[in-house]
Write a structure and sequence with these properties.
Blueprint: H1 3-17, H2 24-34, H3 39-52, H4 59-71, H5 77-87, H6 96-105, H7 107-116, H8 118-121, H9 126-149, H10 154-169
Helix pairs in contact: 1-3, 3-4, 4-9, 5-7, 5-9, 6-7, 7-9
Length: 175
Amino acid sequence: MKHSEFLKLVAALDSNYRSQPADKFSLEVWFRNLQDLDYKIAGKAIQQIMLTNKYYPTPAEIREAYTAITKGNRMTGLQAYEIFNQYCDKGVYTDRQNIDRLKTEYPQVYNIAKAIGFTALHSGNENFIRPEFERMFEKYQDCDFKQNMLPVGFMAECQQISGKVALLVEGGDIE
């Protein structure tokens, strides 16, 4: 978004939450953390926050609302478990075609099923396995959602910086 668009969004937030506008330094920090967002979608995210939150949001809360709008509703662990059972009915979990379809259509569900083990999921101990599947899936979803909140390229920049720090620690030279 453009800086002028960002200032409009902050003005809306300020009119809803603050009696004094933010200082110039704070505005620059906020802009750096939100500039990659689409203005119209960010406006909807801020509108949603103003309608549901009593307190001034942080950039993280704005990015969270924005990501929820752009990525849609998250699947629950129970929904994921039901999807797994649709694709891998008891006794059919070795059917490679169904497992491949699950991997393609619901990669997150597949990753949790693979981590637990397809055989273990149909071991007959559903009272233990199902809640564990749900818990693991929801943790995975939370982690994935937080990754989606970050600006594109942010993690690559962090890895590049950590590589340079490691090189310095080892006594190397940075160009």
